[in-house]
Design a protein that fits this description.
Length: about 80
């Protein structure tokens, strides 16, 4: 039960950090003003992009079997 809660919280943290990265990229590119015509496509595809990125993290086993992150680049690329 605790591992399921931990796994779910890890997935939610990944989803949050992925979207935070997108927002940070918007901030760097467009400054503090989020123009509606630039930001609206992101808002419409937010769920789709998050699912793709979390699935890619799972597919390439960036998170190991014991639900911890791989520590080196070699460990991440070894599964490819």
């Amino acid at each position: 039960m605790i591992t399921m809660i931990f796994r779910f919280s890890l997935i939610m943290a990944n989803a949050f950090l992925i979207n935070l990265g997108f927002l940070f990229a918007f901030l760097i590119r467009y400054g503090l003003t989020f123009l509606k015509y630039n930001f609206l496509p992101y808002r419409k595809s937010l769920v789709f992009l998050t699912v793709i990125y979390v699935s890619a993290l799972s597919f390439f086993r960036v998170i190991s079997d014991n639900y911890s992150y791989r520590s080196t680049t070699i460990e991440c690329t070894a599964s490819v």
